Every structure is written in C-alpha cells, then in structure tokens.
Amino acid sequence: MAEQSRVVLVTGGSKGIGRTIALQFRDAGYRVAATYRSGDVPEGVLGVVCDITDQGQVDQAFDTVEAELGPVEIVVANAGVTKDTLLLRMSDDDWNTVIDTNLTGTFRVVRRASRAMMRARFGRVILISSVVALLGSAGQINYSSSKAALVGMARSISRELGTRNVTANVIAPGFIETDMTAVLADDVIAGYKARIPAGRLGSVDDVAQAALFLAGDHAGYITGAVLPVDGGLGMGH
Predict the structure, then answer these.
(1) pTM, whole model, 2 decimals?
(2) Catalytic residue among 30, 36, 143, 221
(3) CA-derived radius of gyration, the chain
(4) pLDDT tens across 171-211, in order?
(5) Where is the Ketoreductase domain (predicted)?
(6) Which of 25-29, 191-195, 230-234 has the lowest mean pLDDT?
(7) Residue 106 in 3-state DSSP?
(8) Could you give the domains of the chain?
(9) Cα separation values, 184 from 128, 177, 198, 228, Å
(10) How far apart are the first and last CA of the chain?
C-alpha cells in the first residue's frame, strides 16, 4: 500500500492542532477521519461525533471509520481538555475530568486501534502531549500529570507491539498559536516568548508536520520517542 493512502484517525479534529493535523494529512493524500464533540471537521475529512470518555462511542467511531475508509492504520490521539486551578483548590472532579479525557480516553482509543494494527503488522500511534508533561506548570497538576503519563503509555506500547511493526511516539508541543492563546494579553505572550529560545510561539503547522513525519515510512525505526515541538522551551526535561 502506498504510504499516503493509509487510513488516519485524528481525535479532537474540529479545531486547533487537531484540525490542522487532519488537514495536512488530507492534503498529503491520506484517507482521514476525525472525531469531534462539537463544531465540524475540514472538508474531505470523515467526521465522527465521539466523546472519548465513553468506550461505546469510541467503538462506534471505529466501526464507522472502518466501514467508510477501512481499518485505522495511523492514530493521532490529540483530544484533550483542561481544568486549571491551583493544587489546594483542585477538586476531585477537576482531576477526574482531565485524567479521564486526556489519559484514559487516549487509552480507550489506542486499545481499539491496536487490534487492526496487530493484524496488519503495521501501525503508527502518535500521542499529542505537551511541554508541561516534563517541565511542569503551576495550576496544571491534572493536565501535566495526564500528559506526562502518555510518555509511559507510548513506551509500553512500543515494547508490547514493536515486533508487529507498530510504533508509538509522543509529540510534546510548547506554546502554540491557537484560538486559546489568541485571547491572552500581550504582556503574557511576551513573557512566554522571553522563555522560549526560538523567541516566538509555535504554529499548528509545526505540530502537524511532526505528526506527518512520525506517520511516514521513513520513521519506521523511531518508537518510544518524545519529539519536542517547543522552540527549545523544554530543553533538558
């Protein structure tokens, strides 16, 4: 099978990084599906409404993609949420909501995807983490914990499925220009830029290009890796 005709599933594909990843895979010739909870997905991408905290919806989403496009060969686990607050103010619900989506939801998706990957003896698992996974972030103990755990997940998948030609890697974006950062005050943005060796925020295209690389045949011997896309912010972590 030609590399660019493989089936890709992107979770959280309605906006931001996930939407751009879906777009760039589509433009590269892949057959792309994307899950979303609200909004829409890019034209030419098969949109599947799915809440990844619900295993039944995850299974239904995969059934739909398999029926329309074929078995999922590349999964980009991007869907995530935040509930930021300081440790002493963080409720169990604040913790559980973020962990259940970012970590357990990713587990549900990857577990379902791995069946076909093992049968086909090919698979690419790409987990979208964050620079705060290893750098830490005040007010984001739930989020940083969920994103750090993806590193252990990818490396365990690599050890379990590596002989089946399934790779599992982590992309750790830094501060990326999205709708979420667009509402921040200029002085806050300036503060971020001062901490980033590259002197600028990243773009969603930067992250999407990293995903395209890891999905490609040329990255077949890369597994269990953490690829920072952060302008150097997380160096040494």
Answers:
(1) 0.96
(2) 143
(3) 17
(4) 999 999 987 777 778 898 899 899 999 999 999 999 999 99
(5) 6-179
(6) 191-195
(7) helix
(8) 3-226 (3.40.50.720)
(9) 22, 10, 20, 23
(10) 38
